[in-house]
Amino acid sequence: MKKLPYLILIIILGFVSTIKGQSNKNIVKEIDKYLINKFNKKDAGASVLIAKKGKILYKKGFGLANQEWQIPINSKTVFQIGSITKPFTALCILQLAEKGKLSLQDSIQKFIPSFPYKDNTITIEHLLTHTSGIKEYLNLEHKNPFILRSDLKPIEVIDFFKNESLSFIPGAKFSYSNSGYFLLGAIIEEVSKLSYADYVKKYIFEPSDMQNSFYGDNFKVIPNRASCYTKASGKLRKGDYWSMTIPYSAGALLSTAEDLFKWQQALLGNKLLGEEWLKKAVSGYKLTDGSISAHGYGWFVDFIDINGSSTIAHSGGISEFNSLFMYLPEEDIQVIVLSNYGETKVDEITIDLAQLTKGDKLNGTKLSKAIKEKYKGTYESIVAGKKKSIQIYELEKRLVLDTGEWRFEMLPITEAKFQMKNARPVITLEFINDDSGKIKFITKQEQEVFEWIKIN
Description:
Layout: H1 4-13, H2 24-38, E1 46-52, E2 55-62, E3 64-66, E4 71-72, E5 79-80, H3 85-98, H4 124-128, H5 154-161, H6 178-192, H7 196-205, E6 214-215, E7 229-232, E8 235-238, E9 253-255, H8 257-268, H9 275-281, E10 300-301, E11 312-318, E12 321-328, E13 333-339, H10 346-358, H11 369-375, E14 377-383, E15 386-395, E16 398-402, E17 407-412, E18 417-420, E19 427-432, E20 440-445, E21 448-454
Antiparallel strand pairs: 1-2, 1-13, 3-4, 5-9, 6-9, 7-8, 10-11, 11-12, 12-13, 14-15, 14-21, 15-16, 16-17, 17-18, 18-19, 19-20, 20-21
């Protein structure tokens, strides 16, 4: 894995390494074959766009955007992108900082005076990097069971969670926070004197020529907007209704695969932000203990390993929409998957597509029965001075790691190395040879490394 400073240098200078392997024509055939096997034409599906060296290599829709009218998905289908909104929100803040209208070290109370200090200084930077310690408002119980359907003003949502105690001292650790990005939306409005929706449209959508991107509005007629679906008791049903005032600047934007490609090109061309600030956006944040978080300003950095290639990415999920935007800067490869079906394995598909686009063979798609049996069992390690145990077992023909509190599907990179699906920050697991004959593996998450030994 190349070090982060080199990764940033590649972005800034626009240097692109030569992609070896298959020709683009063969790669496109492999991609198309792979995706046809993943999606049924009559089900909800996805819009997929893949670009290489700044040019679209592949774009295609699979499945239906609307079941009632049997309308197919294409590259112009509009999806709710959920938390992919967060890099847009971070970009708005960085634009305001670049213009000198705020400092990332400003206390949030400078712009939201009603927010309690909680005996700690909480800065804009803490919000950007998910290190504020502010409780997650979407996890708090509310007396109104239909709160997600209610149209509220930003300050009403902030009032709901502002008096909760901090989970940790700001800057001490990473904890993914919709609350932090909701507060950033309120700060954008206070500083710019524009609504969040108007600011994003004026300073991001329009300069990027994103003509099919919108702030969420359930009452507005939006051409080509997809409906979302899931399955209950084996039958297809529509996803739950959300008022877009609830996710707000943490997850309310809508876009298309083509528009997200335009946005990435505008970013890389420094049309939206200068080089210095773009570098900050994709640099891991240093915590108070000196360790580096896998999250920068709006982006996860190397939270997914594509055969040793660096990645900059963000996923999104709201109602039954789920999506992933991934960029491989060293190869200048961009993979966008937007789905309107809650069961779509977006992470797995995006990782596979990135591998195919690089010209690599898909890794770990078939583990032998003998390998699975070898790895299954109970393992122990010493974590924070205490003995901990985890289990590895097979579920629906896939290996999973179960901590008792969390269960992760193990995505094979090789027969010995795995990545935990949907773990944020990324967790890798690698089985290693032991001269004593014991089966063991090591796990890595950010700066932490643990050795686990099989006990049965």
